[in-house]
Give the backbone structure.
Amino acid sequence: MDGVGFLDRALQGGALVWIFLFCLLAYIPLLVLVASYALRDLMALYLYRNRRAVVNLFLFVVIPSIALYRFNAWFVREIL
């Protein structure tokens, strides 16, 4: 019975490691994507100065940036 508990914990730990690695590897491309959207939307805001550029800037830059910042804060606090 003790071996089953150990095996369960080992499988759970392995799954958590894979989930963590997936999140970590997805973080870098998402960071690049958000930066490219920020540059594109800031240029559109500067050139056109319309409401759609402001909405795009908020939806595609500010909200993902907050999510990435919160993941980074969790990573530093919990993992490191």
Remarks:
- The chain is about 95% helix and 0% strand.
- Helices lie at 2-48, 51-79.
